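chain below, 133 aa
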Amino acid sequence: MIFVDASALVALMTQEPGWEALADRLQAAGRRCTSGMAVFETVAAVARKLSYSIDETRAMVADFLGLTGIELMVIGQAETEAALAAFEHFGKGRHPAALNMGDCFAYGCTKAIGADLLFKGDDFIRTDISQAM
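prediction:
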């Protein structure tokens, strides 16, 4: 099982450099999930990058999630506690990983469900998260 971070969703949807490797890993995964927070981040980033409206981008992201079989998971108590632990250990101003709020929740969701994290960038490689790459 993998949790798909907003960074991976944006890279896949806008075909950033390296998107093919992310697509291969996504396709190879069994169960795939993400969170409402990651969807929010994805819609905001894709709308900004492509100069689309939020409504247009929201529909694009929903279609992408449906086509790729990425389920939307609920952020509950376990995910929240793991996100807070991520901030304590790896948060911005506390650790070189400098995880922001969205990153901490991606970390928390991934840890809480025992998944691997699919992401793009160099922030999560500075943590103890299980990587999907």
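The chain has six helices and four strands. Strands lie at 2-4, 32-35, 70-73, 116-118.
thats it, cya
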